[in-house]
Amino acid sequence: MSSSQLSKLTILVLFVLSCTCFTSTEAYDALDPTGNITIKWDIISWTPDGYVAVVTMYNFQQYRHIQSPGWSLGWTWAKKEVIWTMLGGQTTEQGDCSKFKGNIPHCCKKTPTVVDLLPGTPYNQQIANCCKGGVLSSWAQDPPNAVSSFQVSVGQAGTSNKTVRVPKNFTLKAPGPGYTCGPAKIVKPSRFFTTDKRRVTQALMTWNVTCTYSQFLAQKTPTCCVSLSSFYNNTIVPCPTCACGCQSNTSLSGGCPHIASVVPNPGKTPIAPLVQCTRHMCPIRVHWHVKINYKQYWRVKITITNFNYNMNYSQWNLVVQHPNFDNLTQIFSFNFKPLTPYGVINDTAMLWGVKFYNDLLMQAGPAGNVQSELLFQKDQATFTFEKGWAFPRRIYFNGDNCVMPPPDSYPWLPNASSRHLTSPLVLLMTFLSAMALLHEFV
Ligand SMILES: *[C@@H]1O[C@H](CO)[C@@H](O)[C@H](O)[C@H]1NC(C)=O
Ligand SMILES: *[C@@H]1O[C@H](CO)[C@@H](O)[C@H](O)[C@H]1NC(C)=O
Ligand SMILES: *[C@@H]1O[C@H](CO)[C@@H](O)[C@H](O)[C@H]1NC(C)=O
Ligand SMILES: *[C@@H]1O[C@H](CO)[C@@H](O)[C@H](O)[C@H]1NC(C)=O
Ligand SMILES: *[C@@H]1O[C@H](CO)[C@@H](O)[C@H](O)[C@H]1NC(C)=O
Ligand SMILES: *[C@@H]1O[C@H](CO)[C@@H](O)[C@H](O)[C@H]1NC(C)=O
Ligand SMILES: *[C@@H]1O[C@H](CO)[C@@H](O)[C@H](O)[C@H]1NC(C)=O
Ligand SMILES: *[C@@H]1O[C@H](CO)[C@@H](O)[C@H](O)[C@H]1NC(C)=O
Ligand SMILES: *[C@@H]1O[C@H](CO)[C@@H](O)[C@H](O)[C@H]1NC(C)=O
Ligand SMILES: *[C@@H]1O[C@H](CO)[C@@H](O)[C@H](O)[C@H]1NC(C)=O
């Protein structure tokens, strides 16, 4: 092994170690360490009995979006506040407003839950960035659509920055569990530019809430797995058996039953995956095929297959970690963005579909797959087909970690078998996947 290889390995090991040190802060994603959804609450005017506020959610996560049926945001009022009216959103329940005569509030609950309005809402009920049915794009994919807003007119509240109380206990659902929100913090008031940028106004008072995601909180079973193949070995390494749970023995009549484990919030969400019967039982499989070897380049084909009969994945994305992403020369029919959470290490890429071409991964069936080819330039010092180097280290689909086959099953170069198990790289990869597992379950 050359010294440059050694130093790269050292960096990699340090990198992995640094990731595992942080696992105690439950919602930490090594590939998007600052990923969060920030909720900004701007008071724009005081009213006789309270205030009017614009609440804006920014999805600062690089690759995790919120799909239909969308987000819901709840909180607990600090005093006896009520919501008189809303624009661009609504509460799911009105609650008990029997104390009011004449003007009836929109919501009297101590713990209101707000959802976005649907597209096509009349203009007089809209505000900017509202009415997308709760769908929030990821920051890397579509920043203008990674923002969502609604306006509330709050009564029985404080009417100055000295008497107003910030709500507590923010809860964000997407729509299932997974997000944890911190306390609201009063921050410097937001500034707003007029459209011609010639005047700046500012909020009377602003507070921020930061919510972070944890796959562990969201669901305990994976939703995605990886299979591998190569031109130099005709073995196709399948997804691990039962990677996303196993077929239940009951009610098997040709098809597969609903898998409770894949449903994040049974009964409450309309997403009820009905997954095609496979050995892995994953809704999504990512196949990585090492296709062609050229003198200075090599080519990989990626195929994402949907096994979920109940789901079209709109705006899907893939995050892939492979050391050669620092020299990706060409990518066909997917969008590409390097993710460099640690600056110097450029081994992670985000891939997603081209709008109106393959940004929709259709439900299970003949059309339920998307494909791309990647052309990498070899770095002669590190490039090798040996010991599984050409295969990805880690893959996420829509932000969820995909289950990899065990490293000792990777397709081998012919005749590499005797040295295979003791090679440092294989040991390192075993270590990496063990760490990834640890990371998942700490
Ligand atoms: C939330 O994300 C933004 C953008 O990446 C970042 O600037 C901010 O520090 C993050 N907040 C927290 C509390 O991590
Ligand atoms: C409240 O507003 C006054 C000015 O009206 C300002 O001096 C003070 O810092 C504000 N306090 C808070 C907590 O924002
Ligand atoms: C926060 O909300 C959760 C669930 O809605 C509830 O169990 C908990 O008691 C609340 N905590 C406070 C301090 O209101
Ligand atoms: C509050 O959130 C807004 C929007 O994300 C951001 O611009 C601002 O810097 C945040 N303030 C603090 C103190 O984090
Ligand atoms: C599944 O069903 C088969 C035959 O119906 C039975 O032999 C087997 O023991 C069952 N397995 C489990 C785990 O229940
Ligand atoms: C997926 O999209 C196709 C075409 O738009 C539609 O026919 C089908 O009903 C959709 N499936 C689901 C589960 O929404
Ligand atoms: C990472 O690699 C990509 C693809 O080769 C390149 O476009 C990008 O500029 C690199 N980024 C950094 C920070 O080196
Ligand atoms: C890409 O590969 C070439 C040839 O090995 C090398 O000179 C160049 O530094 C590499 N680029 C990056 C960003 O690593
Ligand atoms: C192909 O790889 C498999 C491991 O996945 C190995 O068992 C087999 O011997 C390899 N075939 C050849 C021709 O080397
Ligand atoms: C290498 O593979 C070839 C064909 O598979 C076989 O004939 C040969 O004996 C192998 N050599 C070694 C050293 O394993």
Automatic annotation (TrEMBL):
Q: Where is the COBRA C-terminal domain?
A: 223-411
Enumerate the transmembrane spans.
none
What GO CC annotations are associated with the protein?
A: plasma membrane; side of membrane
Record-linked InterPro entries: COB_C, COBRA_pln
Localization recorded for this chain is: Cell membrane
* Pfam families with a match to the protein in the record: COB_C, COBRA
Write out the entry's keywords from A to Z.
Answer: Glycoprotein, GPI-anchor, Lipoprotein, Membrane, Signal
Membrane topology recorded in Swiss-Prot or TrEMBL: Lipid-anchor; GPI-anchor
| Signal peptide region | 1-27
One of the protein's GO biological processes: plant-type cell wall cellulose biosynthetic process
Q: Of which family is this protein a member? A: Belongs to the COBRA family.
Q: Which PANTHER family match?
A: COBRA-LIKE PROTEIN, PROTEIN COBRA
Protein name per its UniProtKB record: COBRA-like protein
Q: Which gene is transcribed and translated to give this protein?
A: COBL1_4
